[in-house]
Amino acid sequence: MSSSVAWQREAARVARLTDRLGKGIDAGILDTVIALRLSGIHTVSSCEGHLNWGVGAPWVSMAAPPDDRLLRWEDQLSEASGDADDLAAKGGATEAIEAAYRRMHQARLAAKAVHLEVSGRALALLGEYYDLASGPTERRLILTMLGNGRARLQSQGADFQEVRPEDQRAHKLLEYQQEMSAFTAFLKGKLQM
Fold first, then answer.
1. What is the pLDDT of residue 76?
2. Coil, helix or strand for 145?
3. Structural domain ending residue among the three candidates 78, 106, 134
4. Is the confidence at residue 82, as pLDDT, over 80?
5. Which among 43, 56, 73, 191 could disulfide-bond with 111, CB atoms 3.0 to 4.6 Å apart, if both were Cys?
6. pLDDT tens digits for 87-145?
7. Helix (H, G, I), strand (E, B), or coil: what is residue 1?
8. Where are the beta strands (DSSP E) in 78-168?
9. How far apart (Å, rounded) are the C-alpha atoms in residues 142 and 89?
10. pLDDT value, residue 32
11. Nearest CA-CA partner of 179 in 150, 152, 146, 153
12. Closest CA to 11 of 20, 63, 2, 32
């Protein structure tokens, strides 16, 4: 399949995605989401960045797709967690509670490993990109770990946006969007788009 056909198919799939409010993916982050997905990175949420709500920088969250092995580990995690809570509430034996917590920890690590496969692919792509690109540290895209192996791709300075004066936020939002666009162009080049 040609890369342009693959792009069109993924664009059609992504166009059907909505958030809990029924809103589709922001136009300013759409190509990034498509390029990441075609690069083997499952995305779960995104934003182009806004000045009047949310984070004043573009971002994309990623995690493993909900396949059978991940669902199995997450089920085991939930079951072990419930067992530990029930045993603790009922004054169960310390050994039984510790065993439930060990099962919970093992299931959490197994699920985390599945999510880290996706985050690891994104980290490798960022490494390739920054071997070629440079710029202010604050603009650099990083993976912020969200817990259990899930990650968010965003500019390193994104968290500062909430406390900056409005005129600076607008300028930085544009810089952060330009960095995300440059990374997206890099991904498209790797995909031969």
1. 72
2. strand
3. 106
4. no
5. 73
6. 667 766 677 777 777 777 887 888 888 889 999 999 999 999 999 998 899 999 999 99
7. coil
8. 141-147, 150-155
9. 41
10. 97
11. 153
12. 32
Contact of 33 with 23, CB cutoff 8 Å: no
Domain around 92: 68-106
Whether residue 57 is contained in a domain is answered as: yes
Same domain, 129 and 144: yes
Pairing of strands 43-47, 141-147: unpaired
Phi-psi label, residue 144: left if phi above 0, alpha if psi -120 to 50, beta otherwise: beta
**Is residue 96 included in any domain, yes or no?**
yes
CA torsion sign for 46, 147, 134, 121 is negative
d(CA 134, CA 22): 37
Residue 9 has pLDDT above 70, yes or no: yes
* Six token digits for residue 139: 């603009």
The number of domains in the chain is 2
Which pair of structure tokens corresponds to residue 37? 């997905």
